[in-house]
Amino acid sequence: MRTIIPFLLASFLFACGESTENTEMTQSTRSTDKETTSEDLETKAKRHAEARLGISPTEKYTLEIYPENLDGDEKPDAIITLNRLEFAKNEAAKSKNPVKHAELGFMGNYNYIFYYDGGLDKISPEILVPSSPNATLKVTFEHIASEKFKDILIDYRVLNASFRNFYTVIEHTPRHVFQWKVFDGINKTEKEAYHFSYTEGTLGPQKDILVMKATMKDPGKVADIYSFEPEITPTSEQLYRFFYYPREGKYMSKK
After folding, report:
1. How far is CA 183 from CA 20, 21, 66, 167, 212, in A?
2. What are the angstrom distances between the C-alpha of 91 and each of 60, 110, 112, 134, 135?
3. What is the b/e burial string over 31-41, where b = at least 16 CB atoms within 10 angstroms of the residue's CB?
C-alpha cells in the first residue's frame, strides 16, 4: 500500500530563534543593473524591512536584492535578503553565555527574505530563515513549478552543514514547498552531499524533485566553516523522488 507523507526536515531550527531588541549593526546593499534593483526599490526595501523588524536608524545590516520573474507576469519581481550578523553578536554579548552562542554560530532569527511583487509593486512581510548569520543567504532560481516563471531556492548554513529551502510563489506569496540538506561534515570525518534534478511531474505541471547522491572532497581543516564552499561532485545515483501534492501545497514522497 502506498502512503503519502510530507517531508519536512528542519522544524527544529525554529527552536533556535530568540526574541531580539535593536542594537547597532552593519548595513550594505547589493544590486544589479536590472530594472527591479533601481534606487527606488532599494530605498523602499530598506524602509519596509526596518519598519517590519523594528530596526533603528543607527543599526547596520546587510540587504541584497535578486531580481527574477517569479510569478509569470511581465513585471520583474525580486527576492530581498536581510542579514543581521552584528545584531546577533551584540545580543549574544548580552546573554549569560556569549561563548556558547559564538560556538553555535549565533544561530537564531537573524536571516530573512522578502518578496517584491513587481505587478503589485509591493513587498511581502518578512519570511524568517532560522540559521547562522555568519553566512548570508544564498539565492538561486529554477524552473520547477512552471516554465513561465522560476521558483526560489534559498541556501543557509547551520554549523557544519548547508540546507536548501524551495519556495513557489502562489497568489502573490512565496510558499515553502520543500527542504533538503545540501552538504554536511565540514571538519568532520563523516561527510554527506547531495545535488538536485528535476523531471516531469507525477501529478501535475510541477516537476518532481530528484535528490541525487554527491561526493564532498575533504579539504582538511577549515578555519571559517560558514564562508567555505566545499568541492561537491554530482553522481548519477538517485536517492529519493518527491512530487508536488496540490492538496497539501508541498512536496511528498511515496513509501
Report:
1. 29, 32, 24, 19, 12
2. 14, 11, 17, 14, 17
3. beeeebbeeeb
**Cβ(194)–Cβ(182) below 8 Å:** yes
Taking only the tens place, the pLDDT of each residue in 44-73 is: 999 999 999 999 888 899 999 999 999 999
Instruction: Identify the H or E element spanning 232.
Output: strand 232-245
User: What pLDDT sits at residue 103?
Assistant: 92
Q: Tell me the C-alpha distance between 137 and 5, whole Å.
A: 28
Q: Using alpha carbons only, how large is the chain's radius of gyration in Å?
A: 19
Q: What share of the chain is helix, strand, coil (3-state, %, to 5)?
A: 15, 40, 45
What ranges do the domains of the chain cover?
4-254
* pLDDT tens for each residue of 117-176: 999 999 999 999 999 999 999 999 999 999 999 999 999 999 999 999 999 999 999 999
Instruction: Please calculate the CA angle 124-127-128 and round it to the nearest 5 degrees.
Output: 155
The length of the chain is: 255
Q: In angstroms, what CA-CA distances link 136 with 62, 112, 129, 226, 242?
A: 8, 9, 11, 9, 28
For residues 124 and 106, the answer to whether their CB atoms sit within 8 Å is no
Q: Which cell numbers in the block locate residue 196?
A: 538536485
Phi/psi-derived region of residue 159, left when phi > 0, alpha when psi is between -120 and 50, beta in every other case:
left
Contacts of 243 (CB under 8 A, 6+ apart): 201, 202, 203, 206, 208, 209, 251, 252, 253, 254
Task: Give residue 81's pLDDT.
Answer: 98
